Amino acid sequence: MKKTHTTYVILFLLIALLMSCSPIMDLPDSEGNPAGINRDPNKFVQISPDWTFDQLNLVTPMDVFASKDGRLYIADSSENRIRVIRPSGEIESGIYDTLDDLSVQPTAVCLDARFNVYYVDEGNKIYAWPQFSASVGIEGIVSSRYYNNNGSPVSLSPLEGLSSGFPVIPYTEIVDTTQTAIIDSMLAPHVFYDPQSLNNREGVTDPITGQTLSGNPVYATINKSFIALAPATDNDLFIYVADAINDQILRIRLIPTIFVKLKNGQLVWHYEGVLDNFIATAGTGAGTVSKPVSMASDRGGNVYYTQTGDFFSVHKLSSSGYGSDFLVGVDDIMRLGEYGYAQDIAVASDGNIFVLDTLDHDVKMYSPSGEFLKPVVVREEWILISDSSFVGDSLVVQDTLVLQQYPDLLSQPLAITVYNDVLYTLDNGNRRILRFTKVDDVIIDDPDRED
After folding, report:
1. Is 351 exposed, middle or buried (0-12, 13-18, 19+ CB in 10 A)?
2. Which one, of 405, 407, 442, lies nearest residue 423 by Cα?
3. CA dist., res. 174 & res. 64, Å (int)
4. Which of 315, 238, 319, 322 is nearest to 276 (CA)?
5. What is the model's pLDDT at position 440?
6. Dihedral of alpha carbons 297, 298, 299, 300, sign
7. What is the Cα–Cα distance from 72 to 450, expressed in whole angstroms?
8. Average pLDDT for consecutive 10-residue bins of the chain (451 residues)?
């Protein structure tokens, strides 16, 4: 017993000596300055628990979009529905049940700033549901209102009033509450953009701008496959859609059709979609289209899309003229071989870009300028590597922390979206939604709270 006790004392003294000479090396930050492991400004961590498809009553979700109030709209294709989820993971009901029994199998979905829900089924039409009007309720259709024509009041229909440019005389609208059949049809999901409609074949004048859209009878007759959608900025009356068969990105203009008064007293327009322009067409260079897969947009009005054809998987179209905003050979995001399969793309409010790579089983994060930052939606471990050497007569042990990333969380992921620095990923192979967020930006206790 005495011998064993002496041995322990000697070992303790030796360990203490080594620890006194064993500094743990801090990790350097991006500028070479010492920093701890949590100083990464782009550090993402996983939010628990995972949301399972069974809990959310999802069967075959194909796309997900986060609205500006944080709700998730998920295109559940085989079930002919769009499931709406609160930030807490609670399934929305009530008025949202309207999206539970659609006439088509939705494969992509987005919302604009007016809370119009748009969706496609890889066919030749875009569908819409006016969520805001449906939530509040329509009191009636405005048949006329008075406008100030050089000091004299004049009664015009709302469309005539838009075209005239006369200022509106407030609270003078005449509201027809008897057209219940038309109101009911407006509040239901319906066709928003049909290339074969009269206005799309023969053209129409936009009563807001006075611009004449010439129409496109040729495009009306060819096969199309609308596979992805993106909204424009809050102030723009456009949405964007990708045509996979014809390798084109279309800008669809919202043309006012019916002016309604809601039950809360608010006056709003309902719209028809008319082809405004092709902002990108078939090709193999930067800013051209070859087998598009997904789309996104940012607050500045720039449009992003991914594709599987030649040569570049990710493109950005500038809001000013829709030219390519990434340079080949300069921006990391345009490098050949950068992706296994660029399945989806999302843009955060700070401009950072996230590309879901189905084959690499990760989400690649880029700066707004296209610089590669890091992979996220991966499992991370810090590995401690120790080594020792003599410095003079002293034995020095140095410990190095090495970050290891393992892309083993995702299986057959199909879509991503981002809201308030929370990244949502449809992990279809594992039948769940993964949530990742920046470590300093999340409130997990009650994500639905109003304060």
Report:
1. middle
2. 442
3. 40
4. 238
5. 66
6. negative
7. 17
8. 42 42 43 51 91 98 96 98 96 97 98 97 98 97 97 97 96 97 97 98 96 96 97 96 98 98 97 98 96 97 96 96 93 95 97 97 97 94 80 77 88 97 97 91 46 42
Q: What string of DSSP letters covers 78-120?
A: GGTEEEEE-TTSPBP-GGGGGGGS-SS---EEEE-TT-EEEEE
Q: Classify burial at 278, counting beta carbons within 10 Å of its beta carbon; exposed 0-12, middle 13-18, buried 19 or more.
A: middle
The secondary structure of 133-199 as a DSSP string is HHHH-EEEEEEEEEEEETTEEEEE-HHHHHHH-PPB-TT--EEE---HHHHHHHHS-EEEE-TTSHH
Quote the radius of gyration of the chain (alpha carbons, Å).
Answer: 28
Which pLDDT score, from 0 to 100, does residue 17 have? 42
Dihedral of alpha carbons 307, 310, 316, 319, sign: negative
User: Length of the chain in residues, anyone?
Assistant: 451
The pLDDT tens digits of the residues spanning 218-230 come to 999 999 999 999 9
Q: Which tokens go with 24? A: 């743990």
For residues 344 and 325, give the distance between their C-alpha atoms in angstroms, rounded to a whole number.
Answer: 19
CA distance 449 to 431: 28
What is the pLDDT, as a whole number, of residue 5?
47
Q: Which of 266, 263, 268 is nearest to 237 (CA)?
A: 268
Q: Report d(CA 292, CA 282) in Å as an integer.
A: 10
The residue whose two tokens read 């399945």 is 343
Give the helix/strand (H/E) hosting 8: helix 2-20
In 3D space, the residue among 146, 118, 85, 96 whose CA is nearest the CA of residue 426 turns out to be 85
* The two structure tokens encoding residue 433: 């939604």
Cβ atoms of 386 and 398 within 8 Å: the answer is yes
Q: What angle do CA 151, 154, 155 make, to 5 degrees?
A: 155
* The pair of three-digit structure tokens given for residue 200, joined into one six-digit string: 């799309």
Question: Domain map of the chain by residue range?
Answer: 127-224+250-281
Backbone angles phi, psi at 181, to 5 degrees: -65, -45
